[in-house]
TrEMBL record:
Function: Catalyzes the transfer of the alpha-amino group from S-adenosyl-L-methionine (SAM) to 7-keto-8-aminopelargonic acid (KAPA) to form 7,8-diaminopelargonic acid (DAPA). It is the only aminotransferase known to utilize SAM as an amino donor.
Positions marked as site (Participates in the substrate recognition with KAPA and in a stacking interaction with the adenine ring of SAM): 10
Species whose genome carries this gene: Pelagerythrobacter marensis
Subcellular location: Cytoplasm
Record-given protein name: Adenosylmethionine-8-amino-7-oxononanoate aminotransferase
Catalysed conversion reaction: (8S)-8-amino-7-oxononanoate + S-adenosyl-L-methionine = S-adenosyl-4-methylsulfanyl-2-oxobutanoate + (7R,8S)-7,8-diammoniononanoate
Length: 415
């Protein structure tokens, strides 16, 4: 599209790459204005779980839009929101008794941080130090950037980001160093520890063990430091289980969900909180209420999509699809293991990743060259630096998955 006034996200308009126009999507396929069929190998940036235009979700959105489109949520409620909250209570960790709505993964993280600080203030022992995991990513608003890794993407804003204490990434062989650092940081007193459970997404699809996740949680429990699980990417089956935390039998104090919450059809997020976090804000004193809202908090149309997603999880064999895709991903990835330019092959649930050549960082020119190659071959893949990952919708067929890996194999040879 030339002459468009649109300023695209994470896009350098000074480079002349074409911006394809998508007119329709279905299952794992995107159809462009030019009539090309593109395989969505990254679930449209990790959001589409069941597949594009799932009939139940699409119908729920249409029906709700005609019935009740929007209503202020401060002091008012509606059925779709109540259905989502009850549905989440039924399948999310038992201790998470409260559901707070917002609009995106980033806002769910902002809410989580504000809840943690409110918890400590209202208990009469104010704490504000936040512990984070090295290479973490939690969104692009100022607070979410503050608890994420610093780099090229936030250099301009760094003077405004608040200080956090970073725990080293617990990669293989470095688990104990990370646990020791966390133990020290918790002993010194901290409000909360925020983590992406089991796998760091934007940080490069870096996985660590369930055992380590469990040990990190245990340290926080021992010191009374709130444990915030950011499952914005890992939730809804991505890592093979409903939540990544499930694999470590960890119940966080605060849980962030977004992306797959509506099946990826429409923006919505929730921050779930344990009863003590809610109780700290509960009083007859208006000064202690939770001061957060946005215009579209718990928008009924978005909630109807989330309610449909929850029904799909209850009534369709989603867990079987996830298990099946996980097996196929593992097999397809293994077939690339002998390639001399592929390294660091890793696989967790429906996510598979590998590195091409040597690490060159996010701004290396390998990524745009790969991006171009994949686009020319009608596959939507968006490498993170020299890391190529495959994270398709759960409905993807064998032919499409095979094609993704054939194109990656060609890229290994040619790019
Ligand atoms: C994508 C992501 C976010 C931010 O979500 P948005 O909806 O893009 O604001 C936060 N945390 C994690 C782990 C993510 O992957």
């Amino acid at each position: 599209m030339t002459g468009s006034p649109i300023w695209h996200p994470f896009t350098q308009h000074g480079l002349v790459d074409p911006i394809p126009e998508v007119v329709r999507a279905e299952g794992a396929a995107l159809h462009t204005r030019e009539g090309r069929r593109v395989i969505d190998a990254i679930s449209s940036w990790w959001v589409t779980t069941h597949g594009h235009a799932h009939p139940r979700i699409a119908a729920a959105i249409a029906e709700q839009a005609a019935r009740l489109d929007q209503i202020i949520f401060a002091g008012w409620t509606h059925e779709p929101a109540e259905t989502v909250a009850a549905g989440l209570r039924a399948i999310m960790p038992e201790c998470l008794t409260r559901v707070f709505f917002s609009d995106s993964g980033s806002t769910s993280v902002e809410v989580a941080l504000k809840m943690a600080l409110g918890y400590w203030l209202h208990r009469g022992e104010p704490r504000h130090r936040i512990l984070v995991l090295e290479h973490g990513y939690h969104g692009d608003t100022i607070g979410a950037m503050s608890v994420g890794a610093r780099g090229a993407f936030n250099r301009a804003y760094e003077p405004l980001l608040f200080d956090v204490e970073t725990i080293p990434f617990p990669g293989e062989g470095r688990e104990q160093a990370a646990l020791d650092a966390l133990e020290r940081a918790c002993s010194a007193g901290a409000a909360a520890f925020i983590v992406e459970p089991l796998i760091l997404g934007a940080g490069g699809m870096l996985a660590y063990s369930a055992h380590t996740l469990k040990a990190m949680h245990a340290i926080c429990v021992r010191h009374g430091v709130l444990f915030i699980a950011d499952e914005v990417m890992t939730g809804w089956g991505r890592t093979g289980s409903l939540l990544a935390c499930d694999q470590a039998h960890v119940s966080p104090d605060i849980l962030c969900l977004s992306k797959g919450l509506t099946g990826g059809a429409i923006p919505l997020a929730v921050t779930m909180a344990s009863e003590p976090v809610f109780a700290a804000h509960y009083a007859e004193d208006r000064a202690r209420m939770f001061f957060h809202s946005s215009s579209y908090t718990a928008n009924p149309i978005a909630c109807a999509a989330a309610a449909a997603n929850l029904a799909i999880w209850r009534e369709e064999p989603v867990r079987e699809r996830v298990a099946d895709l996980s097996r196929r991903q593992a097999a397809a990835l293994a077939a690339l293991s002998d390639h001399p330019r592929a390294s660091n092959l890793r696989h967790l649930g429906t996510i598979a990743a590998l590195d091409i050549g040597a690490a060159e960082g996010y701004l290396s020119d390998l990524a745009p060259r790969l991006l171009r190659f994949f686009r020319e071959h009608d596959v939507l893949l968006r490498p993170l630096g020299n890391t190529v990952y495959v994270m398709p919708p759960y409905c993807i067929g064998d032919d499409d998955l095979d094609r993704i890996y054939r194109v990656i194999a060609c890229a290994l040879d040619e790019v």
